[in-house]
Each structure stands twice: as structure tokens, then as C-alpha cells.
Amino acid sequence: MLRQRIITGIAIAVVFFAALFLLGPTGFSLAIACLVGFGAWEWSNLSGFSSLLQRVSYLCIVLIVLLLSATLIDFPSVAALDFNAGQTILAYTVPWWAIALLWVQGYPSSAILWGSRWMRAIMGLLVLVPTWVAAVMLIHLEQGPWLVSLVVVLVATADIGAYFSGRRFGRRYLSPHVSPKKTWEGLFGGVLANLPIVIALGFGFGLDLRHWLLLGFTVLATVLSSVLGDLLESMVKRHRGIKDSGNILPGHGGLLDRIDSLTAALPVFALITASSNGWF
User: pTM to 2 decimals?
Assistant: First the structure.
């Protein structure tokens, strides 16, 4: 099982980074749109829709909202992508994660507020569509592929740091009713694991104090939001009574099981970057 998981993980990384650096902004954006579409298919099951008609209908709704978002940001006009419109979309959708945090903290009692199929369906829209908008905005920046890579590396580093520090020092559970294995010690370990990245970037770009602080805040917000993205999907799966969102990835489960952290991290990172004109 571990070998299968490692092989699948390596294959995912190779395909992702090949698409990121070889497809160009438009091609990569369309590839992410396909992933969001498949994520919507899996989320339809998490929402509690069981019939083929219901799941296809939900997929179509997500794709329509995705198309509307693309129209608002003038995609695929590479030369004139409307970053202001993208920033507005994220500014209105990213704050919903504050509500998600309250729901995760309050689970299982909070399920009375979001446990219906339609509320979970709306949650899926707020999770998936901003992820695509954020990815499109980042990939269209001058250092786009490297910025997207940075988010992925930050999330992966936090996950690895949390795993080892949680196993070694974990005592206090972060959200026992949602994810019994996650601890506060693991969370702190995940944050600290990214400290070398912050230091390397700071010295590498020759940042002044202001940009050092902005970089540190961006990394901290991205890492913390990635944990929330993971917990949110875990909460919905637990409520639905399933272990994985799907079985497309051998040893890993479904697509959402691999990108749940990124669905929160990417929008948060993109919004901070767009609002502050970046630290780089």
C-alpha cells in the first residue's frame, strides 16, 4: 500500500509540474478547469446526490459558474486578463473560510447548519470555483509557474512537517471529532517546517523588512488555510460516512483527497498577492 501510494504520488507530481511549465497559462488554466470539473463530480457525492442525473446536474452547475467566472476575468485573453475582477471574486469568496472554520470547530453540532444536501452543494461551489480563479490569476503573473509551485511546496512541506512533529510530539488534538490524528503540535511543526523556505526566499530576493513581513504573513496564512481546507473535506466526508472522496488515485483515494488543502491555500495566497502587489 505504501509503495503504491509513493508511486502514485510521484506520478501526480510529474504530471502536474509538466503541465505547469509546459502548457502555458491558457493550457494550464484549462487543465485545472478539468480537475475542478472532476472535483465537482466527487463533491456531488459528498453532497449526498446519488443518482446519475443529480450528479451530472451538479457538475453542469459548477461548470456554468466556472464559465461565468472566466467571463468576468476575461479568460482566455492572456494579454488582458482582468486581475481586478479576479481579486474581487476572491475578496467575496475567501472570507467564507472563516465560516468554515467555525463549522469545523463546532462539528458535529454545526452540521445542523450545513448538513443538508443543498448546503453542501453550495459549499462545493465556494471550494472549487475560487480555486480555479486563483490558479488562473497566479499562472498569468510574470513568475506564474514558480508562484504556483511555491504554494504547492508550502502545502506539501507543512503536511510533512505536521506528520512527523505530530507523531513525535502530538498530544493535544486539533479537531478530534473531524480528524482525530491532527494535533496542535503537528500544526506548529508544519508552520515551522516552512521557516527555511521563508528565510531562503527572503535572502534570495534581498527583501527589505516590509517585504520580509509580508512574505512571512503570506506563508503563514497559506499554511493555516491549507489545514482548514483539509479539515473541511474531512468533516464533510465524516458526515457523509465515507473514507475517501473517490478511488481514482491508487493509494490516495479521490482527487479531492489530494487537493483539499490547495482549495483553501491557493485562493488565500492569490488574494494576498494580488492585494499587496506581491513580496517578490
Answer: 0.94
